[in-house]
Write a structure and sequence with these properties.
Layout (H helix, E strand, L loop, with lengths): L7 E2 L5 H4 L7 H14 L16 H7 L3 E2 L9 E2 L5 H5 L6 H14 L16 H7 L3 E2 L2
Parallel strand pairs: 1-2, 3-4
């Protein structure tokens, strides 16, 4: 007999399903669910490493038991219309960055592409890579 490996879809699993993953108790299940909700969804299983308290050793245990079936259905922020509160609700955008994005938009006009956000002071290449999937232009 081959043991069938149970995999939870971290993109859609509720806290009860997350509890089925080895090394995940109620606290981590809630943290994963809350972080996913604040982000607007996961685009990579590696984002689990950003969950508070989830160490690399725990990630190594849970990774084989997780899958991300759909990483395209993310909640996106319209960078031409979002206000300070909407920007600041996202975990990758702190208060300073929210203010700088709005100031830049006010000074330079609407963004024509998501990539233009790279011109905003404080947006590093690494931050852009993490943040771009959550941004849109309308």
């Amino acid at each position: 007999f081959r043991r069938v490996l149970f995999r939870s879809d971290v993109g859609t699993a509720d806290t009860l399903e997350l509890l089925k993953i080895p090394a995940i108790g109620p606290a981590f299940a809630h943290r994963i669910s809350n972080f996913r909700d604040k982000l607007g969804g996961f685009y990579s299983i590696n984002q689990l490493k950003e969950v508070w308290g989830l160490t690399d050793s725990i990630f190594q245990i849970i990774a084989p038991h997780t899958v991300l079936k759909d990483s395209t259905n993310l909640r996106r922020i319209n960078i031409n219309k979002a206000d300070y509160k909407e920007f600041n609700m996202h975990p990758y955008i702190d208060k300073a960055l929210a203010n700088v994005i709005i100031s830049y938009r006010n000074q330079h006009g609407a963004f024509h592409s998501v990539e233009e956000i790279k011109k905003v002071p404080l947006v590093t290449g690494e931050l852009y890579s993490k943040l771009a999937p959550y941004l849109k232009i309308e």
